[in-house]
TrEMBL record:
SMART domains: AAA (SM00382). Its EC number is 7.4.2.1. The keyword Cell membrane applies. Belongs to the ABC transporter superfamily. It comes from Slackia piriformis YIT 12062. The lineage of its organism: Bacteria, Bacillati, Actinomycetota, Coriobacteriia, Eggerthellales. It is found in: Cell membrane. This is ABC-type polar-amino-acid transporter. GO terms for cellular component: plasma membrane.
Length: 229
């Protein structure tokens, strides 16, 4: 059964149609990697999934909930749909640990003690057990991105969305973030990943989707799509 279902999704900005009827299914435990040139609508599609963008028409479902239904409480959906952005979006005045605690306390109403316990656990999981009391500006971009991943994981998401999570990083810092993503995939996390990392797509994806100009132009298992002439 699919966790995320996208049906005939359209999105326009004024006269410009950026998504022209996207259909997609993401099944439990599956990693779907979305590839395509800049401007093809990948980020817009992902942002429609947690309603950072309002689609012009079409339907998106998360499990049995229609995300695109105006009556759906999107904050309930966002508790289960973790998102990692290109630019980390950490609070600069909070330590790594506090950054991972704050949404747990505010959104999930976890106690400080429980939020702290889970923050420590998740920061260790992404390899930052020795950086928990550092502020973002004392961390490399790759470490900041791993804090952002830990923050998303602390919410116990059913699915994780990654929007160009490594694109803002210096080349030598990309690997650590991809390693964390590979490990999540191995543990069975359901993931939608927009990336330019072809190696990651080839090795980790269960399903690859190529977008161009607002439509899906090709899709399939990596060994199918990458061997096509
Ligand atoms: P990708 O992620 O594939 O690079 P995007 O989804 O970011 O593509 O963008 C698709 C197209 O939509 C681009 O042409 C971009 O300029 C346009 N676009 C994105 N956001 C907006 C916006 N808020 N207003 C107008 N155009 C936008
Ligand atoms: P991304 O790397 O996620 O594609 P962009 O740098 O393209 O992000 O866009 C950053 C922000 O600017 C987004 O909120 C996007 O919706 C908006 N945006 C992108 N393209 C345009 C555009 N042509 N006109 C207005 N806003 C845009």
């Amino acid at each position: 059964k699919s966790i995320i279902r996208i049906r005939d999704l359209h999105k326009s900005y004024g006269d410009t149609e950026v998504l022209k009827g996207i259909d997609m299914d993401v099944y439990k435990g599956e990693v779907v990697v979305i590839l395509g040139p800049s401007g093809s609508g990948k980020s817009t599609m992902l942002r429609c999934v947690n309603r950072l963008e309002e689609p012009t028409s079409g339907h998106i479902y998360f499990e049995d909930t229609e995300i695109t239904d105006k009556k759906t409480n999107i904050n309930e959906v966002r508790k289960h749909v973790g998102m990692v952005f290109q630019n980390f979006n950490l609070f600069p005045h909070l330590t790594a640990k506090k950054n991972v605690m704050i949404a747990q306390e505010k959104v999930l109403k976890r106690s400080k003690e429980e939020a702290e316990r889970i923050a420590i656990e998740q920061l260790q999981r992404v390899g930052l057990g020795d950086r928990m009391d550092h502020y973002p500006d004392g961390l490399s971009g790759g470490q900041q991105q791993r804090v952002a991943i830990a923050r998303a994981l602390a919410m116990n998401p059913h699915v994780m969305l990654f929007d160009e999570a490594t694109s803002a990083l210096d080349p030598e810092l990309v690997r650590g973030v991809l390693d964390v993503m590979r490990e999540l995939a191995r543990e069975g996390m359901t993931m939608m990943v927009v990336t330019h990392e072809m190696g990651f797509a080839r090795d980790v994806a269960d399903h690859v989707v190529f977008m161009e100009n607002g439509v899906v132009i090709e899709r399939g298992a990596p060994d199918e799509v990458f061997n096509n002439p």
